[in-house]
Specification:
The structure is a single chain. The chain has about 500 residues and is α+β, with helices and mostly antiparallel strands. Helices cover about 40% and strands about 10% of the residues. It starts with 8 loop residues before the first helix and ends with a strand. β1 (about 350), α17 (about 360-375) and β2 form a beta-alpha-beta unit. The protein has three domains: about 10-190, no CATH class; about 220-330, no CATH class; about 330-494, no CATH class. It has helices at about 10-15, 40-55, 60-80, 90-105, 130-145, 150-165, 190, 220-225, 230-240, 255-270, 275-280, 285-290, 300-320, 325-330, 335-340, 345, 360-375, and strands at about 350, 385-390, 405-410, 420-435, 440-445, 450, 475-480, 490-494.
């Protein structure tokens, strides 16, 4: 629990690392990343600490909602009170995180609120202007206020309490146009006043009706840009931590493709799959999934290249799949069946709990194998992945723990499925598919054991799914992975 409020930054850190939680025994195990960590380091630490010190059952859902509110609140305050036109990413996100922290702990008694432990941020290498703020400012200019009066008042009260309960470092620091003042919302005049700073171009909301010529993808292809000395771990990290970039158009038009791109990146990272030229020639999305996607804010020329590339990929897919490009359309298309997986339609495990809430995942897998036995189905390669189409019961959805793993009979060499051996498959990804065409698809990726993989947070990230145990009846694609054999060859989707 928090004690008497400290008066210097060193005191803040000493108190912070000594805090105890009423929910967990012992000290917080994650190492403090220092006063000025990177955005990713700060977010990883902050979210873990928030759920340790004030644990919530539906942490992910509450976190996502509060983060979105903090972004909109900070953006509106910068626009209305500081006349900000543009702002560096580090400054904007630091203020968002500080408001998130103040709001998350604002419900606690004043003496229990932990002080904000991070100094104003350093400018990160390659950093540009905040695309998230630019998008929100455009929304503000078009539609007016980003949040309601009550939300704004609540945010102001949270920040007021934070200032009253935490004394940040008083020592003078060298100021720069991109560094926010301690304890205050960043003063943006030094940024907005520089009219020679190029703003990031915003793509037109309407895509062209004629197919676009795909730009060359070598420029940011991770397989070509990473040096020989950079390890497989580096490649794996970038594939999983840097999700697909979205265009600034309605999310229902791109979220299906973004979810599929992130799923392909995740599976490529897990199994060191470098794809193949033959498959990529027939499916541009397989090549696009190897793009760097980081840093998020880049110069105007590279931004234009990324926009043109994404638009070209979307047009390429619309010609070959459908005009809507939902995740379900993309995942079940002939294009993906021929280039991404083998015998995909026959091997999709149906797990429908809408009429039978007591049906277990293992039972559904066993029924699938029995069905394949009657068809004398032959699998040519041992699969890395199995896909489960899960329809949850409206009132009694399965808890997350019931969906983490199952055993599946897989072939031995060229043996029929039912003559093979049983192997465990673990959950590696969940895609919550939209209920109506004008909604969007959501996804989350996991390591073994159902541990969520931390990704870079930004306005362009595919948002995490809502809880799998949410009521109402929803459809999900669950992807399960089986660990590759040592030195084994690349395998396939089942």
């Amino acid at each position: 629990m928090a004690s008497k409020q400290p008066s210097t930054y060193d005191d803040i850190v000493k108190q912070h690392v000594a805090l105890t939680s009423r929910f967990f025994l012992g000290k917080f195990e994650k190492e403090f990343p220092g006063p000025q960590p990177s955005l990713m380091q700060r977010r990883q630490y902050m979210y873990a600490f928030c759920n340790w010190y004030r644990c919530r059952k539906e942490f992910e859902a509450e976190k996502d909602e509060l983060h979105a509110t903090a972004q909109r609140t900070i953006a509106q305050r910068l626009i209305e009170k500081h006349q900000t036109k543009r702002i560096p990413t580090s400054s904007f996100e630091w203020n968002v995180d500080r408001l998130f922290w103040a709001s998350w702990f604002g419900v606690l008694p004043e003496e229990e609120i932990p002080p904000w432990p991070f100094k104003s941020p350093k400018v990160e290498e390659g950093e540009g202007l905040s695309a998230a703020f630019a998008s929100l400012k455009s929304e503000y200019d078009l539609n007016g206020p980003l949040i309601g009066k009550e939300e704004e008042e609540n945010a102001a009260e949270a920040l007021k309490r934070a200032r009253e309960t935490a004394a940040l470092q008083k020592a003078k620091e060298s100021s720069s146009p991109t560094a926010p003042a301690h304890g205050n919302i960043v003063t943006p005049m030094s940024v907005s006043g520089q009219e020679n700073i190029p703003s990031h171009p915003r793509p037109n909301a309407e895509l062209p009706h004629t197919p676009a010529q795909l730009p060359i993808m070598d420029r940011e292809d991770l397989r070509k840009t990473l040096s020989f000395t950079q390890t497989k771990l580096e490649l794996s990290y970038r594939l999983r931590a840097h999700p697909s970039l979205n265009l600034d158009i309605p999310s229902f038009e791109t979220s299906g493709v973004d979810c599929l791109v992130n799923l392909i990146r995740h599976t490529n990272a897990l199994f060191n799959n470098k794809s193949s030229e033959q498959r990529e020639e027939g499916n541009a999305l397989l090549t696009y999934a190897w793009q760097a996607f980081f840093p998020r804010e880049v110069d105007e020329e590279l931004t234009s290249h990324r926009i043109a590339l994404k638009r070209g990929v979307l047009e390429h897919l619309k010609d070959r799949i459908s005009g809507t490009l939902t995740f379900e359309d993309c995942c079940n298309s002939d294009l993906m069946n021929k280039t991404l997986r083998q015998r995909a339609i026959a091997s999709l495990i149906e797990y429908d709990c809408r009429q039978n809430p007591n049906l277990s995942l293992q039972r559904a897998a066993d029924q699938h194998c029995a069905l394949q036995k009657t068809k004398d189905f032959l699998v040519l390669k041992e699969p890395d992945f199995a896909r489960v189409l899960y329809h949850s019961h409206a009132e009694n959805p399965k808890p997350f723990s019931d969906l983490l793993e199952f055993d599946l009979v897989v072939p031995d060499e060229r043996a029929a499925v039912y003559n093979g051996s049983s192997c465990p498959f673990s959950l590696i990804s969940v895609v919550r598919m939209r209920d109506t065409i004008h909604e969007r698809d959501y996804m989350r990726i996991y390591d073994d054991g159902g541990i969520p993989v931390m990704q870079i947070e930004s306005a362009t990230q595919t948002p995490p799914i809502h809880s799998l145990s949410s009521k109402g009846g929803h459809s999900y694609l669950l992807v399960f992975g089986m660990g590759p054999e040592e030195g084994g060859n690349a395998k396939e989707f089942l």
